C-alpha cells in the first residue's frame, strides 16, 4: 500500500519516471515504425540484387509495412492484456525489449523473407508499447494533465521518425551501409532493461488488484467483446483504425515516391521529405490533444479527418516530388494527419474502465492494424496495377480519411468527464 500512496503524491518522482519511460518508449518505437518506409527501397536494392525493379521493391515495401502492422495489431492485444494482468510497467518494458531485440537482429539477415519475419516480431513490441504507456500515464497523472500528456505521446512517435530522418542526413543509407541503421535503432535495448528494473507500477492498477479485480483482469479480452463494452470496443477499433490505415496505405508512400522521382542524382531528398513530414507530424501530435479538449472529441475528429483527406488528395493529385510546393505541403499533411495520434491517447482511455483499460486501448489502437495490413497489401497490388505510379495509389487510398467524418458520430462525447474507475 505504501507504493500506491507514493504514486498518488504530487511530489513523487515516480510519475516523472513514468512520463520519461512512456514518452521515450513510444519515441523509440517511432524510429522502428519509420525505419522501413525510410530504408526499404535501399534494402531491396541490396537483397534483390540484379532482380531489383521499382515495382518489385514497392511490393516488398508493402509487405514490410503490412507485417509490421499485423505484428503491432497482435502485440497491442497480447501485451495490453499482459499489462492488465501483470501491470502496466511490466507490459511496457516487455514490449520495448521485444522491438529492440528483434530490431537488432535485422543486422544479420541475408534475405527479404528473414527481414519480413523480424519486422513482424518488431511490430509485436511496438503494438504493446502504446496501450501500456498510455494507460500508465493516464493513471499516474491527473485529469487536468491528460491533454498535455496525450500531446506528448502523439508527438513522441513522430519525434522518433524525425530523429531517424536526421540520422539519414548524417549517415547516408546505401545498399552497403543500411545494416548499421539496424544497430542504431535497436540500441534502446539498454533503456528497456532500465525500465524493467526501475519503473513504478500504476497506483490505480494496484488499487484494482487490491479491490479483487485480478480475476477480471485476466479475462479482460473476453469482457471487451461482450455487452456492455462490445459497442465501445468496436467504435474504438474504427476510430483507431482510420488514421492508421490512412497513414500506412496512403501517406507513407510519399517516401518511396520521393526517392523514385529524385533518383540517384538527389540521394538526400528522401531524408529531407521524411524530415519535413516528421516535423509537421511532431507539431500535429503535440496539438492533437489540445484540439480534442478545445473543440470536443467529436468535432475535432471530424476536422482532422476532413483536413487529412484534403491534403492527401492535393499532394498526390496536384504536386510531385521536387516541386517547390511539395515539401511545404508534406509538412502540412504531416501536421494535420497526425493530430489523430494526439487525440487518441486523450480519448481512448476515457471510454474504458481501469480493469480493462490497457487491453481496451490496445485493441482499439492496434486492431485497426489488421485492416491496415490488408490495406497496405492492397496498395501494393495497386502499385503493380498502375505500374509503379505512386501518385495514383496515394490518391485512391487517401480517401479512407473521409470515413472518420461518419464514424465519430456513433461514439460518445467524453469532454469534461472524469476517467472511469
Name the overall outline.
globular
What is CATH's topology name?
A: Growth Hormone, Chain: A
CATH superfamily: MFS general substrate transporter like domains
Rg from C-alpha positions?
20 Å
Strand content: under 5%
Helix content: over 70%
How many individual domains?
1
Counting helices, strands and paired strands, the structural category is mainly alpha
Oligomer: single chain
Instruction: Give the tally of β-strands.
Output: 0
CATH architecture title:
Up-down Bundle
Biggest β-sheet, characterized?
Answer: none
Secondary-structure element pattern, one letter each? HHHHHHHHHHHHHHHHHHHH
CATH class: Mainly Alpha
Total helices: the number is: 20
Quick synopsis:
With 421 residues, this protein is mainly alpha-helical. It has 20 helices and no strands.
Description:
The protein is an all-alpha fold and 421 residues long. The chain has a single domain (2-410), classed as Growth Hormone, Chain: A (Up-down Bundle). The protein contains 20 helices and no strands. The two termini are 18 Å apart.
Secondary structure topology:
Elements: H1 2-7, H2 14-48, H3 54-86, H4 88-105, H5 112-140, H6 146-170, H7 178-186, H8 189-198, H9 203-210, H10 214-218, H11 220-224, H12 230-249, H13 254-262, H14 269-295, H15 297-318, H16 326-337, H17 340-347, H18 357-385, H19 390-397, H20 403-407
Helix pairs in contact: 2-3, 2-4, 2-5, 2-6, 2-7, 3-4, 3-5, 3-18, 4-5, 4-7, 4-8, 5-18, 6-14, 6-17, 12-18, 13-14, 14-15, 14-16, 14-17, 15-16, 15-19, 18-19
Amino acid at each position: 500500500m505504501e507504493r500506491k500512496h507514493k504514486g498518488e503524491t504530487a511530489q513523487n518522482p515516480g510519475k516523472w519516471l513514468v512520463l520519461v519511460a512512456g514518452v521515450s518508449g513510444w519515441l523509440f518505437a517511432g524510429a522502428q515504425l519509420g525505419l522501413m518506409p525510410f530504408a526499404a527501397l535501399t534494402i531491396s536494392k541490396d537483397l534483390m540484387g540484379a532482380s531489383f525493379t521499382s515495382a518489385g521493391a514497392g511490393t516488398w515495401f508493402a509487405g514490410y509495412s503490412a507485417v509490421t502492422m499485423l505484428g503491432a495489431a497482435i502485440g497491442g492485444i497480447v501485451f495490453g492484456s499482459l499489462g492488465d494482468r501483470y501491470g502496466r510497467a511490466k507490459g511496457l518494458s516487455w514490449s520495448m525489449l521485444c522491438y529492440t531485440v528483434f530490431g537488432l537482429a535485422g543486422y544479420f539477415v541475408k534475405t527479404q523473407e528473414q527481414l519480413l519475419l523480424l519486422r513482424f516480431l518488431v511490430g509485436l513490441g511496438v503494438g504493446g508499447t502504446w496501450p501500456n504507456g498510455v494507460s500508465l500515464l493516464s493513471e499516474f497523472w491527473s485529469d487536468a494533465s491528460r491533454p498535455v500528456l496525450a500531446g506528448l505521446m502523439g508527438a513522441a512517435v513522430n519525434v522518433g521518425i524525425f530523429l531517424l530522418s536526421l540520422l539519414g542526413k548524417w549517415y547516408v543509407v546505401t545498399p552497403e551501409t543500411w545494416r548499421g541503421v539496424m544497430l542504431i535503432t535497436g540500441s534502446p535495448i539498454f533503456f528497456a532493461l532500465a525500465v524493467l528494473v526501475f519503473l513504478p507500477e500504476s497506483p490505480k492498477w494496484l488499487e484494482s488488484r487490491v479491490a479483487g479485480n485480478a480475476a477480471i483482469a485476466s479475462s479482460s479480452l473476453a469482457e471487451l467483446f461482450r455487452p456492455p463494452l462490445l459497442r465501445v470496443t468496436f467504435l474504438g477499433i474504427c476510430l483507431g483504425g482510420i488514421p492508421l490505415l490512412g497513414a500506412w496505405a496512403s501517406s507513407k508512400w510519399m517516401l518511396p515516391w520521393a526517392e523514385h522521382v529524385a533518383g540517384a542524382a538527389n540521394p538526400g531528398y528522401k531524408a529531407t521529405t521524411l524530415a519535413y513530414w516528421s516535423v509537421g507530424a511532431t507539431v500535429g501530435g503535440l496539438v492533437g490533444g489540445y484540439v480534442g479538449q478545445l473543440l470536443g472529441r467529436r468535432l475535432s475528429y471530424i476536422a482532422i479527418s476532413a483536413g487529412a483527406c484534403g491534403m492527401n488528395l492535393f499532394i498526390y493529385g496536384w504536386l510531385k516530388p521536387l516541386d517547390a510546393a511539395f515539401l511545404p505541403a508534406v509538412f502540412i499533411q504531416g501536421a494535420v494527419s497526425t493530430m489523430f495520434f494526439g487525440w487518441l491517447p486523450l480519448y481512448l482511455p476515457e471510454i474504458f474502465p481501469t480493469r480493462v483499460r490497457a487491453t481496451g486501448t490496445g485493441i482499439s489502437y492496434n486492431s485497426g492494424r489488421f485492416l491496415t495490413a490488408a490495406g497496405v497489401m492492397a496498395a501494393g497490388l495497386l502499385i503493380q496495377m498502375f505500374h509503379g505510379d505512386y501518385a495514383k495509389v496515394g490518391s485512391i487510398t487517401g480517401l479512407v480519411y473521409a470515413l472518420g467524418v461518419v464514424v465519430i458520430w456513433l461514439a460518445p462525447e467524453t469532454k469534461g468527464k472524469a476517467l472511469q474507475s
